[in-house]
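Dear colleague,

As promised, here are the two records you asked about, laid out in our usual form so they can be pasted straight into your sheet.

NAME FIELD: protein one
SEQUENCE, THEN STRUCTURE:
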Amino acid sequence: MIGLAGAAFNRDKEQEMATGDKIELGRYTLVSQAYTEDDNANYGSRAALLDVYRNGKFLTQLNPEERRFKASEGQPVHIVAIHSTLREDLYVTYQGLNNQTGHPIIKAIINPLVNWIWIGVLVIAFGTGMALVPNAALVTVQVPKAEAVAAMEKQGMQPVGAGK
């Protein structure tokens, strides 16, 4: 439930970015360092190299990419770059090029508490597994003798439902 509640606080920003431009989103600053284009036998790709800063301190580099596979007539596939923590996930995608300026369009998304959804799934799976494990200890139960029936027969009575 904690992970699902975090979805109410998602934030995103999409921006055209030339080399050296910045996106500021929450505690994160993304700075574009370089862009590449590649073409091979299976697909053509465009990618961005972004430095990620959190609260002004360098954190990591992310490399979102867009691929266009030749077999599917150039249908774009976006390869997401992710920085994940228990607190939040930072997703960065390369959305394409602005045809007028030739600059890439980058989209950054902050999804809080996503990992708590996965932790919840593990807790449920573990709990289910524990519930399915049989008890290891044998329990012995004393079964009383049918003394009452013998006493009834002595007096000439029969249990209910027994007929002669």
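NAME FIELD: protein two
SEQUENCE, THEN STRUCTURE:
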Amino acid sequence: MNGVYFDEEGVCVGSDGHVLVVYECGKTKFEGKILLQSGEEIEGKYPNFRSVIPSEREEYEHRIDLKELYQACQYHLKKEDSNPEDRVSILHKTYKVKVLVRILNVFIAAGLLNKATIYKSAPDRATVIEAKGMTGIIMPCQHMEDTVDVDMDDGSAKTVSYESLVNDYAFNSWRKPEVKDWMDEA
């Protein structure tokens, strides 16, 4: 996170430009301050974070298991053919896999991933992930619908559907990587 802001209402807010997390556990001794991870104070005024958090909450018809999504994203990032810019499309909204992992890591660190819910939002708005005491938003990416689940043989970033991402994890993560015999290359 670029810095954590402790507001007067007992919340702390962190953002890195792609995700924003509001945690209801501010420390009063830091009230009104913006601190770096090192503890150094940053001078300035923190942006109005409340204005960027969508107020409407509508759950997906089928609840998305965020723990499973996190594990599938982690598996995807470790694959030999993954690209740091790869994206996942969840019901027509697309997110960078590595950014999705970052916001889910915050919920894991707070022990709230199993209690969190991801909500629908308008295509041009941030997506809300929320648990009691914590609200996070993640900005979606643009993608072409006809490129979802298309193999990119040139090594460029790809967009996979949520279903393909989770299925790949479920069907392949348990397999041991194939060990190449150096003799086969001779």
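A couple of things worth noting about protein two: The mean pLDDT is 86. DSSP finds three helices and twelve strands in the chain.

Best,
R.
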